Amino acid sequence: MARSPGTTSSPRDRSGKRQSVTLQDIAAHAGVSRSTVSLVLRESPLVAEATRTQVQASIKALGYVYNRGAAALRASRTFTLGVVVYDIANPFFGAMVAGIDSVLHRENYVSFLANSEDSPERQQRFLERMREQRVDGLLLCPAEGTDPALLTQLADWNMPCVQVLRHIGTPPFDYAGTDFELGVRQAVDHLVTLGHRRIVFLGGEAEHSATRTRHQGYRDAMHAQGLGEAQRIVRGPVTRRTGFESIQTLMQESPRPTAVICHNDLMALGAMLGLQRLGLVPGEDCAVIGTDDIEEAALSLPPLTSVATHPFAIGEEAARLAMRRIANPGGAREQVVLKPRLQVRHSCAPIPASGEAQYRRYPHATLDA
Amino acid sequence: MARSPGTTSSPRDRSGKRQSVTLQDIAAHAGVSRSTVSLVLRESPLVAEATRTQVQASIKALGYVYNRGAAALRASRTFTLGVVVYDIANPFFGAMVAGIDSVLHRENYVSFLANSEDSPERQQRFLERMREQRVDGLLLCPAEGTDPALLTQLADWNMPCVQVLRHIGTPPFDYAGTDFELGVRQAVDHLVTLGHRRIVFLGGEAEHSATRTRHQGYRDAMHAQGLGEAQRIVRGPVTRRTGFESIQTLMQESPRPTAVICHNDLMALGAMLGLQRLGLVPGEDCAVIGTDDIEEAALSLPPLTSVATHPFAIGEEAARLAMRRIANPGGAREQVVLKPRLQVRHSCAPIPASGEAQYRRYPHATLDA
DNA sequence: GCCTCGTTTAGGATCGATCCAAATCTATTG
DNA sequence: CAATAGATTTGGATCGATCCTAAACGAGGC
Q1: Which protein residue has its CA closest to C1' of C15?
Q2: In 3D, which of B83, B77, B78 has the Cα closest to residue B315?
């Protein structure tokens, strides 16, 4: 309480307008200096126990609020991150963002979120804003059509960036995602085991890693199974509607495919609906496999077999990687690639041996698995 | 600054470490003062056209990056908002956040997002952090169990806050949401028109506005239809699983309900699955209506009739309201309540007049509507 | 009692913008 | 031609923290 005889200039004495409590005020109240208070706030081991307690009491007494902006101005870090996804309404990204959030919360970080709507311009604008905000780093699912030069730009900006799920440019860069190639291979192998040979891939049209790797996985797996000739990729937007329409076109061909693997679950659900529209039974007349294993997959009829890609875990890994990169900006770039797992449900019937009864009933509906 | 006479003290002369370009540097380059540059940046009409052009050229030439932290320190606004939802993985909130984002983007605002996971403690921690960040305002879906005193706290903090979807405390406060009461009434009326009388409401257990208003709407509508006696509310967590299990219990009763209205679509989809599990036909043996009209609703079998609550639009309204409140902090509090619309699909068959054939086929599956 | 050494605390400079009151420059007018 | 209003521009003070160097302090040794 050492209010020296000189002017302490308490901030709300003079004007009627009440200003905010600052370090200076606390220092005055606790009878120490600004610097000491600052050290206490930052939990420095330099300050003596008694002083710390005293200062903390004053902080509480005056109802002090830390000003992050001011701190960031002088220091370099902001404990702030920018996150860009291209479709936050997609439950897959929702889960991913939840994973990111859970890690950041533990690390005392807080994040800006933007929905790029797959527009590179919008994405660029947000990134520039993030630079102005002096965020410590970025988590980026690049919008479709993003110029790979973006990575150079970010490097010039000296801005750590972890790409998530998709990536642009060429390594080395930081990345967290899942092994789509492996996932598709598992799907193909599963179908082949069930006797399928005419397996079509319903895939994306965009040219980024997330489609390329899936297509690659499909081609490799088909070749490995000696089905190189039967390869067939149908491209289109990765929407429900495309699944719905593509499957109807496909099923009018002859011979028609016995199975489709879809770029994501939305397409797969659309495809199942398309089969019903034709009066066909999804899973029976044509096996369907999706990718992502969103919650809805377990709920469809029949429940959808899907390549589980664990969005929450990917989010967590990406956030952790960003923390590592911020702590050690010069460190070697890392690529965290999770292994997907084929979640088998009931949308893939085996091809019956000839002569066997064609008709099968659905298994009981269930929420499990 | 009045340093020694003549020294311009360009920031990266002396140390090897390259510092960032500041207003001062631009001023020197353009031959004007710091203040003028600042005015140009803020698009003030005070500065002459010629000067503006000159300064903008210098800004570009030096590759200047605006420092929002510094600006916020001196000025009062940060052009920054905090958004709190309790389950970002829920596609409903994803759409809502997308709506918020789209408005903020237009307004040159950027937002912090947090997922409270319905934990008041976690929510409180984030709100305190937002105060430290000096955000201009908050968009809040209060976590379940939030103390209504939170509103007083925020008022003390002098922090504008728009509640979204749910609300705590008593008016006046700013709020954007949907008229759940009306929505449920529409659902009841629809069912009654189809001949239903034993209509159960599968609802939430939590005590906040979003459940209370739904229950209220249900009770009112049932009374208005002369079905006060038939009222029945089953409470439980608003999850798929609860829908799945509750419906199975209900259908074992005698007489059993002919229709259920669910707190949200997830419960409704779960309920349809539960009916299938019992070997019953959803929509035929028991009509099902959901709430929210998430994308998946159109995709189920049969396609789900649902009270559409337009999450994207709610997000937009909430963000716009926040902008208004920030521009005019003292203005009258507003409550923007959107009208829901019953999206009729095929999950509610009429109660057949006795003697009529019991069996009906599903209409063709479709993606439309 | 004096000196050294390590621990704590102080205070001035600084980060990069905005605010504000005053200075300067143009036209315009009596 | 001086005076004046209006349009631009300016410099110093300021926002609230951190960095950095130096000073104050207390304990222990001779």
Answers
A1: A74
A2: B83
Whether B20 has its CB under 8 Å from any CB of chain A: the answer is no
Question: Closest to A70 (Cβ–Cβ): which among B73, B97, B105?
Answer: B73
Domain A23-66 has CATH 1.10.260.40: yes
Q: Is B120 helix (H, G, I), strand (E, B) or coil?
A: helix
Contacts of A299 in chain B (CB under 8 A): 240, 269-270, 273, 296, 300
* Nearest C-alpha in A relative to B104: A114
Minimal C-alpha gap between B158 and chain A (Å)? 12
Question: What span, in angstroms and rounded, lies between the C-alpha atoms of A35 and A23?
Answer: 8
d(CA A50, CA A32): 12
Q: State the architecture of B180-310 in CATH terms.
A: 3-Layer(aba) Sandwich (3.40)
State the pLDDT at residue A354: 54
User: Å between B335 CA and C5 C1'?
Assistant: 68
The two structure tokens encoding residue B38: 């600042």
Domain A80-178+312-338 has CATH 3.30.470.20: no
Confirm whether B80-178+312-338 and B180-310 share one CATH topology. Answer: yes
Q: What is the mean pLDDT of chain A?
A: 88
Residues A180-309: name the CATH superfamily.
Response regulator (3.40.50.2300)
Q: Which CATH architecture has domain B1-66?
A: Orthogonal Bundle (1.10)
- Structure confidence by residue, pLDDT tens digits, B313-352: 999 999 999 999 999 998 999 999 999 999 999 999 998 7
Distances, alpha carbon A310 to alpha carbons A177, A218, A307, B81, in Å: 9, 20, 9, 30
pLDDT tens, position by position, B27-67: 999 999 999 999 999 998 899 999 999 999 999 999 999 99
Strand D lies under 7 A from the Cβ of residue B40: no
